[in-house]
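Handout, page 2. Input:
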Amino acid sequence: MRIVLVGPPGAGKGTQAAFLAKNLSIPHISTGDLFRANISRQTELGKLAKSYMDAGNLVPDEVTIGMAKDRMEQSDAAGGFLLDGFPRNVSQAEALDEMLKDEGMKLDAVLDLEVPEDEVVKRIAGRRVCRRDSSHVFHVTYTPPKTEGVCDTCGGELYQRDDDSEETVRTRLEVYHTQTEPIIDYYKAQGLVVTISALGKVEDVTGRAMKALQRQEAPQ
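Output:
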């Protein structure tokens, strides 16, 4: 299957993408991973992206599209892929359609992870990270440390990252509503959107997603 995964920040896209890609035996293609890989390998697109990022500017759509195209043309993506973070806007969605059309392919589904805005804020603003080891992450509600403000693993101080503050989260949500959410209507017009609730346990969300995708894949 060829799938696009969409949803607001805090919806658990990265976690679900990894599980779904494994269950469907297709590669998980993340925009973040694409940028890191191209910059690390110092590809021409990576150098170009880094020049914009270093200047504090947004990376142009054509650079992101170029990276995605290169990745989708790799052999492991021949039988399908799951896109996470791309397309990010309608312009990129149109470019993806053109790319696939040129190869005689099409998307099978656009999986929309739905989460209430207040839950998104609660999920992200409640995160606390260890100053000694940022891989140690807790949550004030869901996975609180045994001692408030202290990492269970190493005893380091826990803190809230600047980009996890409620104000920042709401700004990120506004960007999502303005730039990315319109692609849902774009794909609804093509009959591709499958919306599921991203509330509950990770495995429950994965189960709902797999059932929804199987229905989408079944002959109409």
